[in-house]
Specification:
Layout: H1 3-7, E1 12-17, H2 23-39, E2 44-47, E3 78-82, H3 93-98, E4 101-106, E5 117-120, H4 127-134, H5 143-157, H6 167-177, H7 183-192, H8 196-207, E6 210-212, E7 217-222, H9 224-230, H10 240-245, E8 252-260, E9 263-270, H11 276-282, E10 286-287, E11 291-297, H12 300-312
Parallel strand pairs: 1-2, 1-3, 3-4, 4-5, 7-8
Antiparallel strand pairs: 6-7, 8-9, 9-11, 10-11
Helix pairs in contact: 2-4, 2-5, 4-5, 5-6, 5-7
The structure holds adenosine monophosphate and manganese (II) ion.
């Protein structure tokens, strides 16, 4: 796909990403936004996205996001859905559906492409790396675009640790930091640093985790009451499932938090043996081989039983 060719005649361009936007979603959306504002100075470019967490306030123009999804544009000439298929755009979906040209850019294996134009690369580290690749003339990059894309890449690769990190990812990161990024501070402040609330709720989730399937799986759940007690919001729970996955001997970690009566947001992480995207897809969710999620209904025990049966068929028994 030739990115600039697709947008150069547009007068209105919209960009959205998935609900509960994570680092890659925010980074890719804002990286694309800053780039398009630069190369299409006459176009009205708008981002419609749920409010990003405060840690992303270091990204330029993050305050310009239409977090209420209100816009004066009736029909966008071009609309981008990033880091997701259209089903998880939330309120952004109607603008995507109504747009003149719909473009979907994503790296989720579960996304078969929902746009008139699709750039889906399941092997890619992040949507942010894809945006970096699509910027043909690298002289259009600048420090602000680089910061947004770099943040996206570090978040989806766990700071270049996960197996989705490729030579191309490191090459992109190398060029991005050459714009003078204080990468050490960015990594510390957007990835590792936790608030007191986040650490407390992490501790609670670890304390209440349960090992099963001979120690190959671990599960933990937080209900609404417990979240309220700690005053924790859903975005405070990022990272809990990764810590569960770090348990020695564990192949698959499950973390879930209650979103409604008999409804939970489920996160799955794998150390390689289990393809958790397959498990999540079976229950209407999706994601990647080693990181996936779904929203599931039922009691905690029903959900764990249902997930276990799909995980068990993949786990090798000695
Ligand atoms: P999470 O557990 O929310 O961090 O999600 C892990 C990965 O799975 C991310 O790449 C998400 O975009 C993806 N994912 C999470 N929930 C869903 C869902 N309900 N449908 C499709 N993909 C999802
Ligand atoms: Mn992503």
């Amino acid at each position: 796909m030739k990115l600039y060719e697709e947008v150069k005649d547009a007068l209105t361009i919209g960009i959205s990403g998935h609900i509960r936007p994570d680092g890659d979603c925010v980074g890719s959306v804002m990286g694309l936004y800053l780039y398009l504002k630069k190369v299409c100075p006459d176009a009205k470019v708008q981002v419609l996205l749920e409010k990003p967490a405060d840690i992303f306030s270091c990204i330029k123009d993050i305050d310009e996001i239409h977090t209420d999804f209100v816009t004066d544009v009736e029909k966008f000439d071009v609309f981008f859905a990033l880091d997701t298929s259209k089903e998880r755009l939330g309120e952004g979906e109607k603008y995507f559906d109504g747009a003149g040209k719909r473009i979907n850019i994503d790296h989720h294996v579960s996304n078969s492409g929902c746009g008139d134009l699709n750039h889906i690369v399941p092997g890619a580290s992040s949507t942010s790396e894809l945006i970096y690749d699509l910027i043909e003339d690298k002289s259009d990059l600048d420090e602000d675009i680089a910061r947004a894309l770099y943040i996206g890449i570090i978040h989806d690769t766990g700071v270049f640790q996960y197996s989705n990190t490729a030579a191309s990812t490191l090459k992109a990161a190398a060029e991005l930091i050459s714009y003078g990024l204080d990468f050490s501070r960015l990594i510390e402040e957007t990835f590792y640093e936790k608030t007191y609330i986040q650490n407390q709720i992490l501790g609670r989730a670890l304390l209440e985790s349960i090992l099963f399937m001979n120690g190959k799986c671990v599960v933990s759940m937080l209900d609404k009451k417990t979240m309220n007690f700690y005053r924790a919001e859903p975005h405070d729970l990022d990272g809990i499932v990764s810590q569960l996955k770090n348990t020695k001997g564990v192949e698959c970690a499950i973390f879930m938090y209650q979103t409604d009566v008999m409804e939970y947001k489920v996160s799955l992480r794998s150390n390689g043996q289990v393809d958790v995207a397959k498990v999540a897809e079976f229950f209407g969710g999706g994601g990647h081989v080693r990181a996936a999620g779904a929203t599931m209904r039922g009691t905690f025990h029903d959900i764990v039983n249902n997930l276990s049966s799909r995980i068990a068929v993949q786990i090798k028994t000695e």
